[in-house]
Structures are given as structure tokens and as C-alpha cells.
Amino acid sequence: MGLIHFLTLSAFLFSFGVYAIVTRKNAVMVLMGIELILNSANINFVAFSKFGNFGLGGQIIALFVIILAAAEAAVGLAIVLNIYKTFAEVNVDEIDKLKE
Amino acid sequence: MTLYDIIFYLFAFIVVLSAGFVVTTRNIVHAAFFLVFTFCGVAGIYVLLAADFLAIVQILVYVGGIMILLLFGVMLTNKITNVDIKTGTSHLLPASIAIGILLGLVVSVMWWTPWRSEITVNPITTTKDIGTLLINDYVLIFELLGVLLLVALIGAASIARRDKE
């Protein structure tokens, strides 16, 4: 069980996250895809930290990523709520007021 | 195949399967609950990587915090009159092809790269060392993140607040 197995797992998670962002219309589902991508990045950080002999630095960066994910989710959902209040709609492909 | 490998494949299976359900189910509430399984599986992967503190933080913050936030987002932005809350999809086929190509590229590059791999003996518990590092080497980032969380808290509250007309 080496580094490569963990990297492959995180690659799968990353692909699923990108797939969710690209195909889902609901803004909350897009946020879920972002969380998947952040998790895959975290697995990479921790795996490199363990197998690359970097001490605990990777784990601390992963901790910071979790904190940033919490902040991002809070602000993102506030924006989604405000969009819903304004347009009565959360599908990202129908909010195109800026388009001529 | 050691016990470590079996546990890894178990958690990897949970993570990949539930993440697959998250991106394929059309019911948003189901997707949110499958996301809980994904986060718990990732926490198990952290334990396998000798990151026990991180695993607990993952469960506390993701499952306990972010998931509740996402569920509130689902509940507040849909008309709850119908029980199943659907999400539309777009560009399924081109997205699947593109993501398949991306996954194949990334994984093949990973398998061809000669990674430096030195197994280090991590301390049994990492909490004390993480705490020491947080207030020594990473103290600036630590304080900045505190400020950032405060800014995000105030910003989210002021954005989401209903104006009194």
C-alpha cells in the first residue's frame, strides 16, 4: 500500500467533484462538488506528508484547507440564499441577467 | 494482502461509491446524505495515513458543520411542498467523456511518476505536535485564518440577512 493508491483515490474524488460542478444545475450541488474537490486535495496533502517525509506540515495545511472550506461554504450558501431571494431560482444556468 | 490494505480498500470503496452516488442521484437530499458517507470515508483514510487529529476535525467540521449548512441551503432554497427535491443536469455525455479523459490522464501520470517514498514513523498521536507547530511555525497563518473566519462569519450573516423594508 503505497503513495500511489492514495493519489489514485484522490484523483477519483477530484473527477467526481469536477463532474458535479459541470453537470449539476442546482447551486447547492455545485457547492457539494467543490467540497469533494477540497477533500481530494486534502487526501493528497496528508499522503505526501506521510510518504514524502515532510513531517506534519501537510497535515497542518490540510487543517487550514478544512477551515477555508468551512468559510467558503458559509459565504457560498449566503450568496445562494440571496440569489434565491432575488430570482426565486437556484439553477445556475437560468441566472443570466448579465447576459444581453 | 495485509489488514491495512483491506481497510484501505474498504474505505476507498465507501468513498468512491458514495461520491459516485452524490454526482449521479437526482435527489439533492439523497446527495447530501451520501456526501456524509464520503466525508466519513475520507476521515477513515486520514486515520490510515496516521492523521488522527485531522480525522476527528474532518468529522466535526465537515459532517457536523458543513453538511448541516448544505442541508439548510437545500431546505431554504426549495419549495418544500414536494417531498423529493430534484436537481436538473446539463451536458451529461460531453462532461462524462471529458471527465473520463481527465481522470485517465491524471491517474496515468501519477502511475508513471517515480515518487519519492520514504515511510516515516509518525508519532502515535499527532495532536500535541500539531498544537506545537500551530503556535510556532504556522502562527501567522493561524492568526490570519482566525481573522478570515470572523470576516466570513460577518460577511455571510450580512449577505444572507433579510432587509427590513
Tell me briefly what this model is:
The complex is a heterodimer of chains A (100) and B (165). With 100 residues, chain A is mostly helical.
Using the coordinates above, name the CATH class of the largest domain in chain B: Mainly Alpha
Note the run of SSEs of chain A as H and E.
HHH
Taking the sheet with the most strands of chain B, its summary is:
none
Query: CATH fold name of chain A, please?
Result: Helix Hairpins
**Beta-strand residue percentage of chain A:** under 5%
Mean pLDDT of chain B, to the nearest integer, reads 87
Count of structural domains of chain B = 2
Unreliable runs of chain A: none
Q: Spell out the helices and strands of chain B N to C.
A: HHHHHH
Secondary-structure arrangement, i.e. CATH architecture of chain A:
Orthogonal Bundle
> How many beta strands in the DSSP annotation of chain B?
0
Please compute the radius of gyration of chain B using only Cα atoms: 20 Å
Determine the fraction of residues in helical runs of chain B and give it as a percent range.
Answer: over 70%
* Count of DSSP-assigned helices of chain B: 6
The number of distinct structural domains of chain A comes to 1
